[in-house]
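Hi W.,

Here's what went into the run:
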Amino acid sequence: MAREPDPRLQHSSAADSQSDVADEIDDAALAAVMEHVPLGAGVLAGTAVALLVLGYLLIYALVFIPRGTVG
Amino acid sequence: MSERQPEMQERRILGTELLWSFGVGVLVAATLSIIVFTALTMGINPPSNVERADPKTLHLSGEFAEHNLGTSVAADGSVTARIIATQFMFVPHCIAVPEGRPVTLRFAAPDVIHGILITGTNVNTMVVPGFVAQVHTQFTRSGDLLMPCHEYCGLGHSEMWATVQVVPERAFRPDGNGRVSCAQR
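Here's what came out:
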């Protein structure tokens, strides 16, 4: 929960908002999470690229080629 | 946490990155192969032609003189359409071309840079003053196609368009001079 700004201060602090304060994470927990990150990122990026390539191939085969030769 | 664990993680991440790089390399190679394959087997490639034409005398003599514009069929049966793109019209305003037969489109501009595309086809090129823009194509369906200027050329740019009338082979009849005009409808 956000802390009430100190009325004596002329500026606001980054710590006024809870979302701006770094989480307390211990190294072991971070290492445990990092073990699985490459796989998740790979699946996400792989799916995105696969969809992009599929879209390219569909447009190429169903739109570009039927439009006839050009050169 | 053991000492070896971060090293193993680094190795695993490196392995994932190398795998990803390999996958991307395969995709790039596949895309280039498709482009080269269609270029070699189907003749699909970006129009490329370096040929000069003096914009100052374009309409006075030579290939783009007024009497020579439009579609003509040569003695060997090849079909060529010559069009001038100028602010803010195409001359002629309509060109007739045959369906299912190779056609050469030749464009020239006397004033500023124009561009053309023909809807529903892959025909798309810039028309630069001083050069002849040439596109080889084959129209697969008969009907009237719109050919607008697609490069902003001035205030009347949006009014600059022409019609490409693709007619069936049997209806494509050149006159005694080998010229074909759009049918009146």
